[in-house]
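PROTEIN DATA CARD
Card holder: gibberellin 2beta-dioxygenase
Chain length: 416
Origin: Sesamum angolense
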Amino acid sequence: MNKRREYSTDKTLQSIGQADKDNLNQLPKLTPFDCKVLMKPALHENAESNSGLDVASENTDYRMVVSVNNSEHLTQPVRMEESSPDPPFEETYKNLFDSLTGTPQKNFLELSAVEECELPLIDLNQLNLGDSERQACKKQIAEASQEWGFFQVINHGISREVLGKMREEQVKLFKKPFHEKTNHKDLNFSAGSYRWGTPSATCLKQLSWSEAFHVSLSDVLGSGGRNSLRSIMEQFAVVVSELSQKLVDILAEEMGEKSGFFKETCLPSTCYLRLNRYPPCPIHPQMFGIMPHTDSDFITVLHQDHIGGLQLVKDGKWFAVKPNQDALIINIGDLFQAWSNNVYKSVEHRVVANPMNERYSAAYFFCPSYDTVIQSGVQPCVYRSFSFGEYRKQVQQDVKIFGHKIGLPRFLLQTH
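Structure generated from the sequence above:
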């Protein structure tokens, strides 16, 4: 049985879920960047971020700032110590903080108690045992993906040494002065890999108090160990890719579908790795580390620290996920929900800021090539067929117009 206890979080968003078909008829009436509209799930574009991609997982781009001089960024003077690793949130979004005077409730979220839950925990070592244990493990994976859209795995085959080294290099990277991270020329990542904040925010409810490196694996594969960060990122990506492939194959098999589709379309070079840092937030708990969103990939594999802050929707309510440093968190993305014809669930989730402690996580987004067509073999189909590239483009258009991702409801067949 999953244990639950009280935890701090947001009350007003408890009733907000993923947009449904009925919402689509109302979209033309929405006012771009209206504060109420923007409280809906924010863009989570694996790679569809400012540079163009969403599995923003904690899987992708949440329309974060690419650099302090970005034209989308609020034009406030930046005053901070050059040696500080923290992005200049308060200086850059000064007008949003100034608007608090006299009307705090208008700008902040009202918070209430949220229960803490332990996600379903699955021991993958069962896959190496007898047939009955193996089948029971596969069934657990499928059931958790249907009922929760999230689960944890232990004995996953990724060594503590690799995970520890990955975290060590991640911390070193984010401890660099902010101005060095905005350049990151020595890392040889694609332009726009570094993001922070929310350039489209019109009130503090919409500001994500975090920074991230959202990196295409094509930037790090075959790096040949040119530096310790790129070397461990490649090692991490290779083993997590193998885990992802194993899990999607099991989920396909449990539906009675062939798993060759994922081997052919989801290559290491088409996937993404996102390194996240959530600085301490002095105005907690009225801030999000990352706004509510769903992921736009097939599955996401998350390695997080002990701080906590990840929350998800279950049965229409928000729950705080209890950290387990011995486990990796797996969640279903939009593409798998469409491919499975709603058998597996892509669940809305978010990160709540912490007032005292910084938080680190690393998310791997299992994505296909842009020309991959997503079509369910289950009849009758809930969604029309679409390519991953088309999905990304639609997400980007909706975010630009409405300030948030619409996602799968855009692709519902008229009969649903």
